Amino acid sequence: MVLHLPIGLLAALGAVEVWSVLTRPAAETRREPVSPTLLVVLAAVGAAGAAASGLILSLEDQYGGSVLQLHQWLGIALAGLAVLALGLHLVHRAGRPKFRAPYRACVALALAVMIPAGHFGAKMTHGKGFLTEPLTRSRAARAGLLSADSAAGRPVGASAPEGPSEQPPTARLAFAALEARCFSCHGARKQKGGLRLDSIEHILAGGDNGPVVVATSPEQSEMYIRITLPAEDEYHMPPEGRTPLTDAEIDVIRRWIEQGAKDPA
Ligand code: HEC
Predict the structure, then answer these.
(1) In this structure, which residue's CA is closest to atom 15 in ligand 1?
(2) d(Cα 52, Cα 46) in Å, to the nearest integer?
(3) Among 49, 70, 97, 223, which has the minimal tally of Cβ within 10 Å of its Cβ?
(4) Which residue would you say has higher pLDDT here, 99 or 214?
(5) What are the tens digits of pLDDT across the range 64-84?
(6) 193 lines ligand 1 (CB under 6 A)
(7) Measured in angstroms, how far is the CA atom of residue 138 from the centroid of ligand 1?
């Protein structure tokens, strides 16, 4: 979200304060070296705006879950701290030197809150373990658990080696694509639309609106229809903002359904 710009402003404020502490001996007698007033005003207004728009966005419940809750409360706390910092700063400017220390404490606290807020925000939009995924991937690759393609981060099946014995079966490729792009919302932890995609039994059980796969017929399968809708369609899966499936992955899912939507075992 663009409104997260105040994060940068708060960081800048922290830098200004650290700077003025470091240069204090020289600057003591002079006027303050840098005036952070504009920064504080922008950071406070921006943080409050970000928190408000975050609340509105959360009503749409695209994301949901405890991670959103955490991010939301931390964001609100951060906005509160930014506004408080503005108040303290203005009083300090008005000629009350005693208010400088609480102001600094406020900025420091806001910076501290920013770290977990940012962490949960990233977790929310990129899915759990987005930072550690590349690590676990290469570990799995070393253990020989992944195909060469998915270990290299290439779209699954994009450059499948020649010879049928080398190529993982379609069902396994299809499940790998679902795992990468769908399990975060349709897995053990979350079942958006009442749908779980992390086992053949769950897939066949369907979602809130019934079956999502009609074996041998992709065109009648809600799951296939959704992944082939135009990207801007509100029913497109994965939803807007998430990394879409590649053409190769969509093709693998189509073939998997055509071949009877079998368990990859
Ligand atoms: C960011 C979370 C998210 C991701 C990732 C995601 N979905 Fe969904 N999905 C939803 C939500 C929310 C709904 C319910 C609203 C709707 O029907 O659009 C839904 C509904 C569905 C439904 C309809 C279920 C029913 O019975 O109504 C299907 C099918 C589906 N998703 C397939 C997929 C597939 C396939 C993927 C991976 C390519 C995927 N989704 C990835 C959030 C997600």
Answers:
(1) 193
(2) 10
(3) 97
(4) 214
(5) 566 677 777 877 887 888 888
(6) yes
(7) 28
